[in-house]
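Q: Give me a backbone?
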Amino acid sequence: MVDWIRSDTLVPYPKAIAWMEDRAAAIARGEAGEAIWLLEHPPLYTAGTSARPADLTEPGRFPVYASKRGGQYTYHGPGQRVAYVLLDVGARGRDVRAFVQQMEDWVIATLAEFNLRGEKRDGRVGVWVPRPDKPPLPDGTPREDKIAALGVRLTKWVSYHGLSINVEPDLSHFDGIVPCGISGHGVTSLVDLGLPVTLADVDVALEKTFAQVFGSAPVPRRAAQSQPG
C-alpha cells in the first residue's frame, strides 16, 4: 500500500529534497514502499530544469532554489498543499506522459470533490479554471487561472517531486515570478474562488480519489518504510 505521510509544520525545501531523494532511491532498491507526502513549505520559489532567468522578476523577494524537477519557476508557501509523489512508475507502465496526465487527472478529481471543474490545456502542464467573471486577454482569449502546478523527476523509474494545489496561499506571492513561464493568465485558489476549503479537506479528497486515478498499488519490491525525520 502507498504510505501516506502528512507534515503539520512548514518543511524547509532542502530537507524535503533530501528525504525524497533518499526515499526514491530506497524504493528503486526495493527497500521501501511507495509514498505520498503532504506538506507546506515556507514562502520560496523553485526553478525547474527549463526555468528562464527573465521569469524571476523579483529575485530578492523569497529564497530561490534550483530544482531537478521538470518545468519552470513556481511558488510554494503556506496555504498551498504540496503533494510529493513517490511512485514506482516502472511497475506502473513506464509511460511518463501517461503518468503526468494521471497526476493532472488526480487534481481534477480532487477539485471535483468540491464541485469545482478543473481543466487541462494542451501545451500547458497543470490544472486550470476558466474565469468568465474576469475580462478576456487583450487578444480576446478567455481568461483562465492556474490552480495547480505539476513537476516531476524520475530516478530509476521512481518519481519524486509532484504537485501543488492552491488552497489559501497569499496569491500576491506569485507576483515575483512568471508562474511556469506563462504570461497573461493568472493564478487562483479554492478560497479565492469562494470555496471554504481547508488543507485537511484537500488531504481527504486527495486520498479518496487517488485509487480512482492510479488504481491499486503494484506489487512492492519491498515494504519497509521510512518517515521524514
